[in-house]
Amino acid sequence: MTIDHETLKSYTLAVLPSGLDTSVEIFELPHPSNNESKKNLRLFTLDDQVYQLKTKEFSKGCDYNKQKDLVSDKYHYTSDGQPFKSTFLIDENNRSDGFTMENGSILYSEKYDLTFSLCGYYYRKNVVPNEDAAFTPSINGSINPDKNFYTSSDYQERLISNHNENWAKTPSHIWEKALENISKIVEEAGEKYYCIDADKITEWLVRKVCRIINNFPASLKIPSTFPENISSAFKCIMSCNLLVSLIPQLAYQRLINYESEELNIKQHFEEYKKYKEESIKEDIQKEMAIKAAMSTGLPNMTNGIDKSKKKSIPKPKVVKPKVAKGKGRIDGFFKNAKI
């Protein structure tokens, strides 16, 4: 295969939205989960949409499959640990239209809902060291929410001063729409005033969960042995957990305790937990029954041998030696017993 383009050494290949014919400014905002182990998001805006830049590495496996990749010898590296050059085709029908790169990393863009970042701002004091901590309900439980109402311009100033200065790089009409998703709104003299509210955040997340349930990923298999109610509970739980990497720990805890006639998430979690506990008990009881059956013999049987068929083994008789009688000097000591 022949590649006409030169090897890219100091450039990065990026897959951007179609219709992008001008330069865009890439800026960063803190990760919305307030997870210390996660890097800032790289974002840019195009028209009325925010996009997130992500990295895909073709010449390097993920950490989860690291050992498996080493065994299968799937990826190859130079002596200094760098991956071999990677080739990318732009047009699969034209093998000469492509790039050869020093590494296999490319950037690609996905649509991003700025409402997640506003949630991160609201729960900015709720910081966790890693994603596992999100499942623990007792970390930094107090956030001291601001219950005042502000205009959109005032809110942007607060975001810039209290969260991140790059909020100034987001067009007001984009983040104002996101603000409406999770805020109480009052209108006075033709102007809107906003107040981000925890209940509004939860309601917005519930709508996200409902959409995931209705379009549940086929890659997430539901065990066929589950009863119908447990299958529904499992689907709801997985839908909530798909959001855990994007929302603060307290927002997740409020979400999984949500109750309504439309969707009772708390009940689904409780039903699934009870089902798992009962399943574990049943497994333990089955295991104990199997062990008991293996250790208990049949009637009149000991270690598989019928007692009735056991042969008695006679005890050996001890024969005392007789002393011969003679005329020796000691014969007088041995006299016949009188009857």
UniProtKB/TrEMBL annotation:
It comes from the Eukaryota. GO terms for biological process: RNA catabolic process. Keywords: Nucleus. Residues 116-255 form the Ribonuclease H2 subunit B wHTH domain. GO terms for cellular component: nucleoplasm; ribonuclease H2 complex. Its main location: nucleus. Residues 15-113 form the Rnh202 triple barrel domain. Pfam families: RNase_H2-Ydr279, Ydr279_N. It is found in: Nucleus. The keyword Metal-binding does not apply. InterPro entries: RNase_H2_suB, RNase_H2_suB_wHTH, Rnh202_N. Transmembrane segments: none annotated. Non catalytic subunit of RNase H2, an endonuclease that specifically degrades the RNA of RNA:DNA hybrids. Participates in DNA replication, possibly by mediating the removal of lagging-strand Okazaki fragment RNA primers during DNA replication. Mediates the excision of single ribonucleotides from DNA:RNA duplexes. This is Ribonuclease H2 subunit B. The gene is RNH202.
